[in-house]
Write a structure and sequence with these properties.
alpha/beta, Helix Hairpins, Heat Shock Protein 90, 19 strands, elongated
Length: 593
């Protein structure tokens, strides 16, 4: 249903100008915004111009109520009018001259009207409801009063629009100029900041070199008098120059013990200084792990602070002979076991060893002591740092043992990391190259990397989580945050497949209920590609699986991790199975469930 608002003949240029004016007035009265008014007026005037230039045309503005409330413009013209019509008489379609109108209006359509004429209809959806009868009648009256408006009024309005547009362009240009000036000033500031940072970095390097040289020199100077104190106290304890009474023996023994503690501190400082300056020398020898454990067992058992603590060395099985610096490796393990014994009041301290990745061996020292909070687990590897707490009462130390052990492990081609939870003990994993000379040759000639069990950005320690639920991805990462892994995330199947091919993760945690491409399809795609075929996959889902679905999944995955009742122990067990299958989990096996 439609009602006419205004109609006019199209004969002269004045008619075209008036039509544009009427079109804009009608669009404004029907609630169209300024830009839409301009678009409607432009489309109407362009079509009116073409219709008037070809033959005497006619135009009518109507208010269409159904099916969609719209402003409808009908133009009658000859079919031969310059580019208005394409196609045959029985299948008319808009010609090239109507392309602008098609861009400006919601709908443009043609139909024949007989005697070589056609009707062109253009429609634009109303921005709000159809106005009432009184508004329509008032609009018709206004249009009749303005029927004879001069072309000068319309031209003046167009000029005003152009002036406003020019003013806006000038304002935008001024804003762009201002932003460019600010950007130039920012760039100059960044350059100056980089120069200042380089100066600061150079100053820090010089200060570090001075500190290293100072520690090295002072440590060397202190060693001589400390050695004299220890030797002289030993002479007195051995009664070389005569007997001592009980009180004198006690005093000399205190002197000797204090001297031993001071010598250990000096030795640690000197070792750190040598490593930092690059002057620490590695002297590789061939020895077995059994020989190393035998020496450590006798050396460390007297260090037990609490009688209820057992020191256990697991027997190494099937490990080849090591070719590395035995003294430095022994120093690493002595520091780790000594710390474990200090902070374990009951239970045991267990030392074990297993083959690691890249021809390395991983020594693990596990205790049942106080444990370390997550926020302190990196701080303890800083020099002279000790975590404050009740567990420190009665325990002495300098805070150098763990930093030195990590530096020594890296020097031997490996790394040192830890796993711990407060109240549940700690486990330190020290990885070293099995054959130091071979690792050194590869690292020197090919730029090879150290075998490591700590978190890095290599694919060997990356876990890819494919799940569209952001909360589920976050919970998994928090649950496994204490394990040294890097996580990558994908919210869809195609994105997960792309990342799996690019990153080659150590394992994949895959949700089954993914949008578009579900987990079953992702798993099949992973198994089809040679690059991703052997990546272990753990299903992480909230679905209740049927026996058929389980049978379909289990031959191709490590296991199924339900989201309901998810616990850290279960997640770690499955993750350990996945990573140990690739030899990436410290002390892991290659079994899979």
């Amino acid at each position: 249903m439609s009602s006419s608002l205004f109609q006019a003949e199209l004969r002269t240029g004045q008619d075209v100008v008036n039509t544009r004016q009427r079109g804009r007035h009608i669009a404004q009265a029907l609630g169209f915004e300024g830009p839409e008014q301009v678009r409607i007026a432009t489309a109407v005037s362009e079509v009116a111009r073409l219709a008037a230039s070809s033959t005497h045309g006619h135009i009518e503005f109507l208010l269409e109520e159904a099916p969609v409330p719209s402003l409808l413009v009908r133009v009658w013209a000859a079919e031969s009018g310059g580019g208005l019509v394409a196609g045959r008489a029985d299948s008319l379609r808009p010609g090239p001259a109507l392309a602008p109108a098609q861009l400006l209006m919601d709908r443009v359509a043609l139909r024949p009207d007989g005697e070589g004429r056609f009707v062109l209809e253009m429609a634009q959806r109303l921005p709000r409801a159809v106005p009432g009868p009184q508004v329509v009648e008032s609009l018709r009256a206004d249009l009749e009063r303005q029927r004879r408006a001069s072309a000068a009024d319309e031209l003046q309005r167009q000029n005003e629009e152009l002036l406003r547009t020019l003013e806006e362009l000038q304002a935008r240009k001024a804003e762009v100029d201002r932003l460019n000036r600010e950007l130039e000033e920012t760039n100059r500031g960044v350059v100056a900041l980089y120069a200042e940072l380089e100066e600061k970095a150079e100053a820090l390097r010089r200060a570090s070199d001075l500190k290293t040289r100072f520690i090295s020199n002072v440590s060397h100077e202190l060693r001589t008098p400390i050695s004299s104190v220890l030797n002289l106290s030993r002479l007195m304890l051995d009664r070389i120059d005569g007997p001592l009474n009980a009180e004198q023996e006690k005093q000399v023994l205190f002197i000797h013990q204090s001297g031993e503690a001071l010598r250990e501190l000096i030795d640690d400082l000197l070792d750190l200084a040598k490593i930092e300056s690059g002057r620490s020398e590695v002297l590789p020898t061939r020895f077995s792990v059994a020989e190393l454990f035998g020496a450590l067992r006798g050396m460390l058992r007297p260090l037990r602070v609490h009688e209820g603590v057992s020191l256990v060395f697991d027997e190494p099985e099937g490990l080849p002979e090591l070719h590395t610096d035995e003294r430095k490796l022994s120093q690493i393990l002595r520091n780790l076991v000594s710390n474990a014994l200090k902070f374990t009041t009951r239970g045991e301290v267990r030392v074990s060893v297993a083959p690691g990745p890249q021809d390395s061996v991983v020594f693990s020292v596990r205790d049942t002591g106080v444990g370390i909070a997550p926020e302190d687990q990196e701080r303890i590897f800083e020099e002279f740092v000790q975590v404050e707490g009740p567990h420190q009462q009665g325990v002495k130390g300098t805070g150098l043992g763990l930093p030195l052990s990590r530096r020594l492990a890296e020097l031997l081609g490996g790394s040192l990391i830890m796993e711990s939870q407060p109240g549940q003990g700690s486990t330190f994993h020290a990885a070293v190259s099995r054959d130091y000379t071979r690792w050194r040759g590869v690292a020197g000639e090919e730029g090879g990397s150290s075998p490591t069990v700590e978190q890095d950005f290599s694919p060997a320690r990356t876990v890819l989580i494919i799940d569209d639920d952001e909360v589920a991805r976050y919970l998994l990462q928090r649950l496994l945050s204490e394990v040294s892994l890097q996580f990558r995330e994908a919210a869809s199947g195609p994105e997960g497949l792309r990342l799996a091919g690019e990153v080659r993760p150590a394992t994949i945690l895959l949700d089954l209920s993914l949008p578009g491409m579900d987990g079953f399809e992702v798993l099949e795609a992973l198994r089809r590609e040679p690059a991703t075929r052997n990546i272990p996959v753990i299903i992480h889902t909230s679905r209740s699986l049927t026996e058929q679905e389980r049978g379909r999944l289990l031959p191709h995955v490590v296991g199924i991790l339900p989201k309901s009742g998810l616990t850290r122990d279960v997640a770690l067990e499955l993750l350990q199975q996945a990573l140990s299958g690739s030899g990436l989990w410290p002390g892991g096996t290659s079994s899979r469930t």
